[in-house]
From TrEMBL:
<dbReference type="GO" id="GO:0006228">
    <property type="term" value="P:UTP biosynthetic process"/>
</dbReference>
<dbReference type="InterPro" id="IPR036850">
    <property type="entry name" value="NDK-like_dom_sf"/>
</dbReference>
<keyword id="KW-0418">Kinase</keyword>
<dbReference type="GO" id="GO:0005737">
    <property type="term" value="C:cytoplasm"/>
</dbReference>
<keyword id="KW-0479">Metal-binding</keyword>
<feature type="binding site">
    <location>
        <position position="94"/>
    </location>
    <ligand>
        <name>ATP</name>
    </ligand>
</feature>
<keyword id="KW-0067">ATP-binding</keyword>
<dbReference type="GO" id="GO:0046872">
    <property type="term" value="F:metal ion binding"/>
</dbReference>
<dbReference type="Pfam" id="PF00334">
    <property type="entry name" value="NDK"/>
</dbReference>
<dbReference type="GO" id="GO:0006241">
    <property type="term" value="P:CTP biosynthetic process"/>
</dbReference>
<dbReference type="InterPro" id="IPR001564">
    <property type="entry name" value="Nucleoside_diP_kinase"/>
</dbReference>
<keyword id="KW-0546">Nucleotide metabolism</keyword>
<keyword id="KW-0597">Phosphoprotein</keyword>
<feature type="binding site">
    <location>
        <position position="88"/>
    </location>
    <ligand>
        <name>ATP</name>
    </ligand>
</feature>
<dbReference type="GO" id="GO:0006183">
    <property type="term" value="P:GTP biosynthetic process"/>
</dbReference>
<comment type="similarity">
    <text>Belongs to the NDK family.</text>
</comment>
<feature type="active site" description="Pros-phosphohistidine intermediate">
    <location>
        <position position="118"/>
    </location>
</feature>
Amino acid sequence: MSHDERTFVMVKPDGVQRGLIGEIIGRLEERGLKLAGAKFMQIDEELAHEHYGEHEDKPFFDGLVEFITAGPVMAMVWEGADATRQVRQMMGTTDPAEAQPGTIRGDLGLDLGQNVIHGSDHEDPGANEREIDLFFDEDELVDWEKSDAEWVY
Ligand code: RTP
Ligand code: MG
């Protein structure tokens, strides 16, 4: 089994507006991933450009920036074995119309623009660390272990 890693996940503005934060966090918890950080925040133009910089030359870039800055997002860091790939699998493909039932986008997404969740690209080495650094300071992340100690149960 591969070692634990951290990945960046975000409930996009459409997911926040539609009240899907809890549903999405619930799915990640149930899968056994561990939350390492969370921040309910508004993305500004500059951060949007940095975060989606890889798409700067694409025709949909301006619309993407407008959408991701249109309302608050729930930015998070999740941890687990192979977490980046795991989350991408749970998300489903970019276009919800193509995404498998059972995936977050397949079950909850509306269309290519309104696809409720972002996760770091597992095929882009270092994307997870880069995005975590972009959204979080080191002291906003929590190192903790799951416990079945007496104070829990
Ligand atoms: P994300 O980065 O948001 O997690 O999505 P992704 O990896 O599945 O897809 P990506 O290729 O990185 O595209 C980023 C977002 O841009 C929008 N998009 N529109 N009109 C289009 O052809 C088009 N292609 C992509 C999507 O909202 C996608 O999530
Ligand atoms: Mg992407």
